[in-house]
Design brief:
The complex is a heterodimer. By secondary structure, chain A is α/β, with parallel strands linked by helices. Chain A has helices spanning 13-16, 67-74, 97-100, 118-126, 135-141, 157-169, 187-202, 214-220, 267-278, 292-299; strands at 27-38, 41-52, 56-60, 82-87, 103-106, 175-179, 206-211, 223-228, 231-236, 249-255, 258-264, 286-288. Helices cover 29% and strands 26% of the residues of chain A. In chain B, 70% of the residues lie in helices and 0% in strands. The chains are: A alpha/beta, B mainly alpha.
């Protein structure tokens, strides 16, 4: 995806400020008391969330927790049983074409019109929108310029995923939905994808991301909500999620009797005390906070 | 918002252009949907050549008229059904429904693609019939009128039936067999592959419930000499009944489409 400039990209940042469809200042998504059941199974059991304009918001949770159902209700693909939902100021269950023109949805398809070329497909999708991005620029930022004239049927899995993203952003959406976008990416492709998300964010795009990957949420999201069994069990910025900032830290060092470890809520005090005890450097000193993964596993009830 | 959304008609033509391009590039579609009726016509016409006993009608003429009906159904019913089922199960329909593309534009695109391919298919089969099987283009305005309404009502009925049938396959891979099998059976029963008089009575009765039998019969009335009406089991061309059956299928097909059409794949849970 490279680091080429994106001059002329997304010129709508100014126009977007205050353009929140009559909702509270700078709120892109507002959900209250959302519920959805499939027969006996309750998939979403009373969810409240709010996503600010320009924010990258990650929804984390195990399979079957209700992530996809929630996102599909916000995208207007599914109907809810109860609750209120406002996406860019409109109810997705009733919103029309003008609303669809303001959102972008990245769906993963096994194939999409294999007989067309990448360029033809991106140009085709651009015609649906009132203010599309230039297809050439979209191909460039998604790293598909060299594949522009290739038939879609000949693309590799990673290239297909990038085409999915290209088709999701060509309409220059204010709000972009990304459902597990990097599943199946190699590490290099993931890093490039992260760069693209950051670039979209710089241009003021609000992004709702669902992911299995905690490092991805930590690297990209301004805020994270953890969903388990149809409920939000924690929400916050990645550093403080689930009390991560105030949780006990683990201090380890090599003492005279071998390795020693202590869990403490005041690690600085302990380290100062150890420094005094050793008269300077503490051998083998490490201080670790719980990782996002530790917090996450605890939140979803899988931790010990 | 001050943005003007592109018009539904313009996007319908945009869709149509993309659909026709995709069809022409799809080797399977061109070979099995577009080419197969012409190939079968050449094979059947060559194997069962000659005059029909006691009539001034050639077997080739009979086959050509029936095969044109089969060709119309191949591009309208078979291809349309397979392509929509593939798009639905592959997620393309869901993706399109997540964009500001109006649903009417999607269907206008399908209509354009189906019309272009069905006209091309019909022309191809008529050319093969004229070149090899003594088929004559109708000379009277009355016969052209019959041809026009049978073509339009027939392709509309088959197209709507194809859209309705597209909801049956449960995966993209099963789309072609699930739609092609009943189509093939119907072609045998409707007298496309065999002269309708050779089809057993009960099969003729079953075929009478479906559009293809009436389309074949109507096209025989267009392309065969007048005395060929003596070869019809009904003893007449039954134009009135043909129009009624096709119109009924258009209404029924429309109801089926409206009630069964889905933009999302079948849930696999």
């Amino acid at each position: 995806m490279g680091d080429r400039g994106v001059a002329g990209w997304g010129t709508r940042g100014g126009a977007r400020a205050g353009d929140d469809g009559g909702m509270g200042e700078g709120v892109a998504v507002r959900v209250a008391g959302l519920r959805k059941s499939y027969g006996e199974l309750t998939a979403v059991d009373g969810i409240d969330l709010e996503i600010g304009t320009g924010e990258v918001f990650a929804l984390l949770g195990p399979n079957g927790a209700g992530k996809t159902t929630t996102v599909e209700i916000l995208e207007g693909f599914r109907h809810r049983d109860a609750g209120t939902v406002a996406v860019l100021g409109a109810d997705p269950a009733r919103a029309g074409r003008a609303w669809r023109a303001r959102i972008g949805i990245v769906l993963q398809l096994a194939s999409a019109g294999p007989e067309l070329t990448v360029q033809e497909m991106v140009r085709h999708f651009a015609t649906f929108y009132p203010r599309p991005r230039s297809p050439g620029e979209v191909l460039e930022v998604t790293g598909l310029t060299s594949k522009a004239r290739s038939r879609i049927g000949t693309l590799s899995g990673g290239q297909l995923r990038r085409l999915d993203v290209a088709l999701g952003i060509v309409g220059q959406p204010e709000l972009l939905f990304l459902d597990e976008p990097t599943t199946g990416f190699d590490p290099e492709a993931r890093r490039q994808f992260w760069q693209l998300i950051r670039r979209l964010r710089e241009h003021g795009t609000t992004i709702l991301l669902t992911t299995h990957y905690l490092d991805e949420a930590e690297a990209l999201a301004d805020r994270i909500a953890v969903i388990a069994a149809g409920r939000i069990v924690a929400a916050g910025d990645p550093a403080s999620l689930g009390g991560r900032l105030s949780a006990a830290a683990r201090v380890s060092w090599h003492g005279p009797d071998g390795p020693a470890t202590e869990e403490t809520c005041a690690p600085t005090t302990l380290v100062a005390e150890l420094a005094g005890r050793f008269g300077g450097e503490v051998p083998g000193l490490t201080v670790t906070r719980p990782t996002l993964e530790d917090i996450y596993l605890e939140l979803i009830g899988a931790g010990i | 918002m001050t943005d003007t959304l592109p018009s539904a008609v313009r996007l319908g033509f945009e869709r149509g252009g993309v659909e026709v391009t995709a069809f022409m590039r799809e080797k399977m579609a061109v070979a099995f949907i577009f080419g197969l009726p012409a190939l079968l016509l050449v094979l059947l016409g060559s194997i069962f050549g000659g005059q029909v006993a006691g009539h001034s009608v050639t077997v080739g003429q009979l086959f050509t008229a029936g095969m044109i009906a089969g060709g119309i159904m191949a591009t309208s019913f078979q291809y349309l059904g397979i392509s929509i089922a593939t798009e639905r199960e592959g997620g393309m329909l869901k993706r399109l429904s997540g964009t500001p593309l109006p649903r009417s534009s999607y269907f206008l695109g399908k209509l354009i693609q189906t019309l272009v391919c069905t006209v091309a298919e019909t022309v191809l089969l008529i050319v093969v019939g004229i070149a090899f099987y003594h088929l004559h283009l109708p000379t009277s305005p009355g016969r052209w009128w019959t041809f026009s309404w049978i073509f339009l009502l027939g392709s509309a009925a088959c197209g709507l039936l194809g859209i309705a049938m597209s909801s049956l396959p449960r995966s993209a891979a099963s789309a072609a067999p699930v739609i092609t099998l009943p189509f093939t059976v119907l072609q045998f029963m409707s007298g496309v592959y065999v002269p309708f008089t050779s089809v057993p009575g009960w099969m003729r009765d079953v075929a009478s419930f479906f559009p293809l039998k009436w389309m074949s019969q109507g096209l025989r009335s267009v392309f065969l000499p007048g005395q060929a009406v003596g070869l019809e089991p009904a003893g007449s061309w039954e134009h009135g009944r043909t129009a009624l059956v096709l119109a009924a299928w258009i209404v029924g097909g429309l109801v089926l489409c409206v009630t069964t059409f889905r933009w999302q794949p079948k849930s696999r849970n």
